[in-house]
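RESIDUES AND SHAPES:
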Amino acid sequence: MRILRQRNSAILRALIIEDTRKTMALLITHKCINCDMCEPECPNQAISMGNEIYEIDSDRCTECIGHYDKPTCQSVCPIDNTIIINPAHKETNEELWDKFVILHHTV
């Protein structure tokens, strides 16, 4: 029973995070180990080395909209929950798409 409750809780948490992620930008937390996996994978060159850990430039991050189905930095990061949603920086999918167009299709 306890395992079932934990599993249901994890599923609910994942659904809430996925639903919330649709309107928020990404953030690299202090859990970052500077493994260099995320930076070369970013199609928008939004990830760079900060003073101590990698950082995401919210002006360039589209959460991979226009490139991939989900953010590649999260996919390649070896430490769970290191690249998370940033509640301080909200953007809709439409705003992220507009940013992608500006970054990659300007004349």
